[in-house]
């Protein structure tokens, strides 16, 4: 997915958010924003938005010395989600695959790349809403594909959100799933440390993409990840960043996300705030 003009102010705002998390020094914050704005002036809009997130992360580290400005937020929302997990697990255990899918996608609201503040009440409200609103997509088709696949590559998205992934993983044959997180700190996306902290490594085989990008751009990924990507007969893509970067014509891919951005919603052919299961056109 390419960038659009509407992406530019969002990217600029994201640079300030990251800078504020990294340092209280307003002059350093300004330096970060000015460098990002300069980059935006020459930006090729054909590039996917997550590449600019990579540039912001590198800029913040260069100017402030902080390599993971979202570190505190990631732990806070991992802990928050883990606190919710026992009750949600009971609900899923007593319910259908459909309920697990809904709650799994609801976790995608924990995204500080699209919202500078999410808020725990927003997460709770989204959980409640997800159980009653229509899903934009075909749950039965998704379930059948999960059952028939011999090797599934699940590409994760955000810290905190990955705890919600455990609800759906509990309904699946985990022996055939490879679970991929980011290859380094980027926004509030989940890394191997988050997977270990939240217990994902006790459930499935966890790898990383080899790239500190909040999406999957194969040219930046490790050979190990690419091998798993090429040999999977089903790919579960969680979140907007993966939707923005992966091949929409690849019939193996099921995109699962909450539409939090008008540009993404328009591109996906859904409404803002929909919970979405999307396959190749």
Write up this protein.
With 281 residues, this protein is of the alpha/beta class. Helix content is 49%, strand content 11%. It folds into two domains: 7-64; 71-278, Uncharacterised protein PF01937, DUF89, domain 3 (Rossmann fold, 3-Layer(aba) Sandwich), CATH 3.40.50.10880. It contains twelve helices and seven strands. Strand 3, helix 9 and strand 4 form a beta-alpha-beta unit. Helix 2 (26-41) packs antiparallel against helix 3 (50-64) and helix 4 packs parallel to helix 8. The longest helix has 23 residues, at 71-93.
Quickly list its features.
alpha/beta, 2 domains, 281 residues, Rossmann fold
What gross morphology would you assign? globular
CATH class of the largest domain: Alpha Beta
The low-confidence parts are: none
CATH fold title of the largest domain: Rossmann fold
CATH superfamily name of the largest domain? Uncharacterised protein PF01937, DUF89, domain 3
How much of the residues is beta strand, in percent? Answer: 5-15%
Please give the share of residues in helix: 40-55%
Counted beta strands: 7
Radius of gyration: 18 Å
Provide a count of the helices: 12
Sheet with the most strands, sense and barrel status? 7 strands, mixed
CATH architecture label of the largest domain: 3-Layer(aba) Sandwich
Strand/helix succession: HHHHHHEHEHEHEHEHEHE
Termini separation comes to: 14 Å
Q: Tally the structural domains.
A: 2
What topology, given as strand order, has the largest sheet?
A: 1-7-6-5-2-3-4
What is the averaged pLDDT score? 95
Query: Given the helix and strand composition, which structural class is it?
Result: alpha/beta
């Amino acid at each position: 997915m390419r960038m659009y003009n509407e992406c530019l102010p969002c990217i600029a705002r994201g640079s300030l958010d990251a800078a504020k998390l990294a340092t209280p020094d307003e002059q350093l914050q300004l330096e970060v924003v000015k460098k990002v704005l300069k980059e935006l002036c020459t930006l090729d809009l054909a590039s996917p938005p997550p590449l600019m997130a990579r540039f912001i992360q590198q800029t913040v580290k260069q100017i402030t010395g902080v390599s993971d400005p979202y570190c505190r937020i990631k732990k806070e929302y991992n802990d928050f989600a883990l606190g919710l997990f026992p009750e949600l697990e009971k609900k899923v255990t007593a319910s259908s695959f459909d309920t697990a899918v809904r709650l799994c996608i609801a976790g995608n609201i924990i995204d500080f790349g699209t919202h500078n503040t999410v808020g725990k009440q927003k997460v709770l409200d989204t959980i409640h809403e997800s159980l009653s609103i229509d899903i934009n997509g075909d749950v039965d088709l998704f379930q059948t594909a999960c059952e028939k696949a011999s090797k599934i590559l699940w590409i994760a998205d955000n810290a905190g959100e990955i705890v919600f992934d455990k609800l759906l993983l509990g309904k699946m044959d985990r022996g055939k799933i490879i679970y991929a997180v980011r290859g380094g700190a980027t926004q509030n996306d989940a890394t191997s440390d988050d997977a270990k902290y939240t217990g994902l490594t006790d459930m499935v085989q966890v790898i990383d993409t080899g790239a500190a990008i909040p999406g999957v751009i194969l040219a930046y990924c490790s050979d190990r990840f690419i091998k798993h990507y090429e040999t999977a007969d089903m790919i579960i893509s969680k979140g907007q960043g993966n939707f923005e970067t992966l091949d929409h014509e690849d019939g193996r891919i099921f995109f699962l996300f909450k539409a939090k951005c008008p540009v993404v919603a328009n591109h996906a052919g859904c409404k803002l705030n929909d919970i979405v299961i999307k396959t190749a056109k």
